[in-house]
Write a structure and sequence with these properties.
- By secondary structure, this protein is mostly helical.
- The chain has a domain at about 1-80.
- The protein contains six helices and five strands; from the N terminus they run βααβααβααββ.
- The strands form two sheets. Strands 1-2-3 form a three-stranded parallel beta sheet.
- α1 crosses α3, α4 packs antiparallel against α5 and α5 (about 80-90) crosses α6 (about 95-105).
Length: about 140
């Protein structure tokens, strides 16, 4: 198995650098179920961030890219079920990274994830740290 860094996926998705895109495409298309590529949770979050900020790709289009990665039999994506659930929670105000943080916390058994991020409070797994008093529940 070969791990993929964010920049390899960015080159594959955007095809914006002829030489690097050619190498990224050759590697990714060489994977199969017997010899898969690996995509970490960090890479998924970075991919979302780079496509959104640097390339101005819409949230819907990025969600489609991530779904294709999750569905690819030639790739093993870490915490794929949590990433799928996070994709279902995206709105104009909710980022993939915030949704995934909440999902991963829930998966780890957290009763909630404390945050100062007002937009993330739209997620069921997030609670304002100011509402909780900044202390762990007893």
């Amino acid at each position: 198995m070969i791990g993929l860094d964010t920049n390899v996926l960015v080159r594959y998705v955007t095809q914006d650098d002829p030489e690097q895109s050619r190498h990224a495409t050759a590697l990714i298309e060489s994977f199969d179920e017997g010899t898969p590529g690996f995509v970490s949770v960090v890479v998924l979050v970075e991919l979302h961030w780079v496509l959104r900020r640097a390339y101005k790709v819409s949230r819907g289009d990025i969600a489609m890219v991530i779904r294709k990665l999750l569905d690819a039999r030639e790739l093993i994506v870490a915490e794929a079920d949590a990433a799928r659930r996070a994709l279902t929670r995206l709105t104009d105000d909710i980022d993939f990274s915030d949704a995934l943080i909440g999902e991963l916390g829930a998966l780890a058994g957290c009763s909630y994830t404390a945050t100062f991020d007002r937009r993330a409070l739209g997620l069921p797994d997030m609670r304002s740290i100011t509402e909780t008093g900044g202390e762990a529940p007893r």
